[in-house]
Description:
Blueprint: E1 5-8, E2 13-15, H1 25-29, E3 32-39, E4 42-47, E5 52-53, E6 56-60, H2 64-68, E7 74-77, E8 80-83, E9 87-92, H3 98-105, H4 124-127, E10 131-134, H5 137-176, E11 187-190, E12 193-196, E13 200-203, H6 204-207, E14 208-212, E15 224-225, E16 231-232, H7 234-238, E17 244-245, E18 251-252, H8 254-258, E19 270-274, E20 278-284, E21 289-290, E22 295-299, H9 304-321, H10 332-337, E23 339-342, H11 345-385
Parallel strand pairs: 3-8, 16-21, 17-20
Antiparallel strand pairs: 1-10, 2-9, 3-4, 5-8, 6-7, 6-9, 11-12, 13-23, 14-22, 15-18, 19-20
Helix pairs in contact: 5-11
Amino acid sequence: MEEWKEYKLGEVVNILDSKRVPLSSKERSTRQGCYPYYGAQGIIDYIDDYLFDGTYLLIAEDGENLKSQKQNVAQLASGKYWVNNHAHILESNGESDIRYICYLLNTLDLSGYITGSAQPKLNQANLVKISIKLPPLELQKYIADCLSVFDNKIEVNRKINENLEQQAQALFKSWFVDFEPFKNGEFVESELGMIPKGWRVGTLDEIGDVVGGSTPSKSKPEFYTDKGFAWLTPKDLSISNNKFTAKGEIDITEEGYKSCSTKLMPKGSVLFSSRAPIGYITIAKNDICTNQGFKSVVPKLAGTAFIYYFLKISTKDIENKATGSTFKEASGALMKSLQLIIAPERILHDFENIMKPLFTQQEVLEDESRRLAELRDTLLPKLMSGELKVNDIH
């Protein structure tokens, strides 16, 4: 067996935190561009310049990642990008493979190195003290190569889905914002501007049923289960970028479902978080209900794709109209009254038919990526501990 040795993290990496430069949201808004701007939880913006060029390891210094550790604390950033002051920046000092360190840190319980409860923080002084166990460098590289196969395929799937998403958004804008396919027809005035003749101004509740959610009593554990009625909270979406969602972290029992006013919605419903924060959006993969942090839309006159993209482009408007003292919330009345331009049913139907194969492909790729991530995460701790040999997975 190859010899594994104990180290402190600071012995096998260099920390480049002095090169971090934060930019305010106002600064970023005036510097929009193509380079990723990283924070503690990943890419938060794209700007017009970069600080780093290459592959480095970013570790959350604060934020939600540290609070739950259900999201990866460590991530690799490659190419050209900017990093703010909420992520530590690490490179190998020649004693480690930085990819291996990334995988390893995401298997460890780092709670003993984190300070603060309300605002957890992993400062640099504690970062360098993290105890790790490493095999020889060549084996580190070999294990990282094996695990990277999964991540590379997941990244390919992500890029394909991103391209499909751009196509879908462009088509929605072309049809229902710019009216490009209908420009040769007659237009009439409306309260929302000139629209094709035969179209009309209506409200969201005309094209879909707006449905709120609820939470069973947390004091009754019998209301919650691992396998029951799928139930979603905004927090579930804070750790997922998926367009399609089957369930949250925990389900509710039939008794829990009957104890509150949450409603099961069918597959294809568009789930929209209406508070804390406003604007998380996903599509139900199956029957699902939510807590009170959602005002979701069950398609009626229009289909899933139209409603999804209408809510996407309307999020800023919804935020501006939302009210509340502690935190802003979009009420059911607000959501129902949102104005929109409603095309004839035939056009709405044609749009859904065009979107259906695109959405199906996106969902298939998301499912594949989820399975790959689960397999990677099953192998990861066993490879990191030496319990499983690389040759065992060939």
